[in-house]
Amino acid sequence: MERRQYGSIEKNPRTGLIKNLRLKNRIAMAPAERCYATMDGFMTQRYIDYLVERAKNGVGMIYVESTYVDPPAREGFSSSGFTMTS
Ligand SMILES: Cc1cc2nc3c(=O)[nH]c(=O)nc-3n(C[C@H](O)[C@H](O)[C@H](O)COP(=O)(O)O)c2cc1C
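A: This is the predicted complex of the input protein with flavin mononucleotide.
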């Protein structure tokens, strides 16, 4: 049977390989808006704890919530931001 690939992730169901990054499994947690960041978009311990808890419980990869790069484009109050500061 022809060996197919999905993007750069191997088809082997027990392992995932994205370039040189090996995942412990191929389960990926879909992104969800938690809005646990600060009002100006900074990461909080609450959001870190939330992500760590999911990682400990088995998922191989986590998509985090949407992260704005321009404050007017943010999803809601307390969304994560990744912006340049001067
Ligand atoms: C940035 C982003 C944030 C999302 N946030 C939520 C969310 O807060 N709640 C939710 O039910 N789905 C959210 N979704 C959609 C889920 O991640 C997922 O795609 C959806 O539940 C459909 O799942 P399926 O593709 O397995 O059917 C978000 C998607 C993206 C891209």
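The longest strand covers residues 16-18. The chain has one helix and six strands.
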